[in-house]
Design a protein that fits this description.
The complex is a heterodimer of chains A (297) and B (291). By secondary structure, chain A is mainly α. Chain A has helices at residues 2-10, 13-38, 46-62, 68-91, 97-114, 134-153, 155-165, 167-172, 177-203, 213-226, 231-247, 249-253, 255-269, 280-288, and strands at residues 125-126, 205-206. In chain A, helix 2 (13-38) crosses helix 10 and helix 7 (155-165) crosses helix 9 (177-203). With 291 residues, chain B is an all-alpha fold. Chain B is built from 11 helices and 2 strands, in the order H-H-H-H-E-E-H-H-H-H-H-H-H. In chain B, strands 1-2 form a two-stranded antiparallel ribbon. The longest helix of chain B has 29 residues, at 2-30. Chain B is globular. The chains are: A mainly alpha (297), B mainly alpha (291). At the A-B interface, helix 4, helix 5, helix 10 and helix 13 of A face helix 4, helix 9 and helix 11 of B.
Chain lengths: 297, 291
């Protein structure tokens, strides 16, 4: 597109690269935010769903010669489908089983791709056509952000928050908790698959080890650092944690130690993250809203 | 052939059972999946390695030393990472904190020792006994006997001592137990200590059995032991033992008769099947929701 050509003249390629990664990570992290931050169901296999999207989209473009948009959609749908299959038995139950099941699932997926002939086995899949550009990523990221805001302000979004706050009370208020938990998990997986497809068509090369457990932890950190359930918070967390390892050598070197310690300290001192539950709506109301008192408030 | 695989499976399964006990005991009391439990097992294996290779002690002293070390480690983790959160924030926060501890500990060990595997020195000469068609190594006998002793000891402690009684009371109702004058914080701390000691014993024995320890060994073992705990019925102590042994046998048989490249997938397949078909596990009671 024209915009990319113009941008690449004025902005250093390295910064452009980081900004593309930020855009992709925002899509992925917002997906996890819906499942974990908003609905309170800890999913630890986000990278696994990302890899499903990445491989599906890549294979659709390379082997089947599909257009880019179809490949992206196919990857995202495949990830959401697996999310449904995994979420239905797990989310029916009380408790934290989802965390363990998703870790196990992501691990199985990784092993599967290590032995998967059309995916190039352990060597990985190269020669994916480079379709993902800066403007496309940010266009999609903005669409995803807007849809996220719309979703969280809708009846469904409020039900998600209700399930996180108190599942029994939500059920008593007439919310079909299982259905909505599965739905939120599917939306999260869908966005993971979409991000995976974008990633594959940006890097042009993917391998099973790109989507390990630590990648899932990275997304979890993005959601937790910025603020669980908060869209501005998740974006902030994503930006900070994408830039920090690039800019600070010490962060890159001790990255995992830092991630682990950060999770513990955040949970002790700020369990809702830096911008816990700050919503666009609240910001808008504080800065631009005219105070209208109703009997409700 | 089949009997031999069965014995191999029971050996592996008894180590899973030792780890699963820690999960199930902690879950029984505070409904937390102690994610760092696998890392305690890994630290146990390394503590045993240190004792054996630097101080040259025999296997039993190493076992006891590693267990004592991990008792302290388990209590420290509970004190630092879980207690400040307990009662104040949601269960989700506690679970995320546990994941943080797990990553922190495994990375810390990787920084100290590198990510490669370390071999255990030869500390016992391994005899092989032939019983008919069955080959049984002395190491397998040690693992089976030590695990059995630890599990019997645990059962006695839970059912015969004052502290065991307090632990059972806490697992039924933490608030009611504290109203009856039980120091719930201390009981939770002891539970972590005992669970961690059992995991350390498992770690040392697995390290010797497979002759390899590495910083990320806890992750997979922890997940499998968790699957075992769910299979047996999470919260149930006999369930964890049965679940561990069953999982070990199924895994070895799966590798022997199906395929070895999906070895790690077997445990998770079982976990998902159990959650679909019988979420309360083999020994667990059906959970009723309390408002």
């Amino acid at each position: 597109m024209v915009m990319d050509a113009v941008l690449s003249q004025y902005i250093d390629a390295y910064y452009l690269h980081i900004m593309v990664l930020i855009g992709i990570n925002i899509i992925l992290a917002l997906g996890l935010n819906i499942t974990t931050g908003v609905t309170g169901q800890l999913s630890m296999g986000h990278a696994g769903f990302m890899s499903i999207g990445a491989y599906t989209a890549a294979i659709m473009s390379i082997h089947l010669g599909m257009p880019f948009w179809a490949a992206l959609l196919g990857g995202a749908t495949a990830a959401a489908g697996f999310g449904f299959l995994l979420g239905l038995p797990t989310l029916r139950l009380e408790g934290d089983y989802l965390a363990m099941v998703t870790i196990g699932f992501a691990e199985i997926i990784r092993v599967f791709f290590l032995n998967f002939e059309p995916g190039g086995k352990a060597v990985g899949l190269s020669g994916i056509p480079e379709h993902t550009t800066f403007s496309l990523v940010w266009l999609l990221a903005i669409i995803v952000i807007v849809l996220n805001v719309k979703l969280l302000n809708s009846r469904i979004g409020r039900s998600f928050y209700a399930i996180r706050e108190n599942e029994i009370a939500a059920e008593a208020a007439g919310i079909n908790t299982t259905r909505l938990k599965v739905l939120s998990f599917m939306v999260g997986s869908f966005l993971a698959g979409l991000g995976g497809g974008l990633y594959a068509h940006y890097m042009t090369y993917i391998a099973p080890q790109d989507f390990g457990f630590m990648k899932s932890i990275e997304f979890l950190n993005m959601v937790v650092l910025g603020g669980m359930g908060s869209i501005p918070g998740t974006i902030l967390g994503t930006v900070v944690l994408t830039i920090a390892p690039e800019m600070l050598r010490i962060v890159a070197e001790y990255r995992l130690l830092f991630y682990g310690g950060m999770l513990v300290l955040l949970m002790i001192f700020r369990p809702n993250g830096l911008l816990g539950d700050v919503r666009w709506y609240d910001i808008k109301k504080r800065w631009f809203g005219k105070e209208v008192k109703t009997w409700e408030s | 052939m089949f009997i031999e695989q069965l014995v191999n499976g029971l050996t592996l399964g008894s180590t899973y059972a030792l780890i699963a006990l820690g999960y199930t005991m902690v879950y029984g009391i505070i409904q937390l999946i102690n994610f760092a439990h696998g890392e305690i097992y890994m630290f146990g294996a390394f503590a045993g390695l240190l004792l054996v290779s630097v101080f040259g002690v025999n296997i039993f002293i190493a076992l006891i030393g590693a267990m004592l070390f991990c008792m302290l480690l388990g209590m420290l983790i509970e004190r630092v990472a879980y207690r400040p959160i307990r009662g104040k924030s949601s269960r989700l926060s506690a679970l995320i904190s546990a994941i943080g501890v797990s990553i922190f500990l495994s990375t810390l060990m990787a920084l100290f020792r590198g990510t490669n595997t370390t071999r255990y020195p030869e500390i016992i000469t391994i005899h092989t006994y032939h019983l008919g068609s069955l080959d049984l190594s002395s190491l397998q006998i040690i693992i089976l006997v030590v695990s059995a002793l630890l599990m019997v000891g645990l059962q006695l402690m839970i059912h015969k001592t004052r502290m065991g009684k307090a632990m059972r009371a806490c697992s039924q109702d933490l608030d009611a137990a504290s109203l009856m004058g039980i120091n719930a914080n201390r009981i939770i701390s002891y539970t972590f200590a005992i669970g961690s000691a059992l995991a350390a014993a498992g770690g040392v024995m697995v390290g010797i059995y497979y002759n390899a320890v590495w910083p990320y060994m806890g992750m997979m073992a922890g997940l499998k032991a968790f699957s075992a705990a769910v299979l047996g019925g999470i919260g149930s102590i006999p369930g964890a033992m049965i679940g561990g042994l069953t999982l070990g046998v199924l895994e070895i048989l799966g590798v022997a008769y199906l395929s070895s490249s999906y070895k790690d997938a077997i445990a998770f397949g079982i976990l998902i099947l159990v959650l679909i078909l019988r979420p309360q596990g083999i020994m667990g009671k059906k959970i009723t929701k309390k408002v």
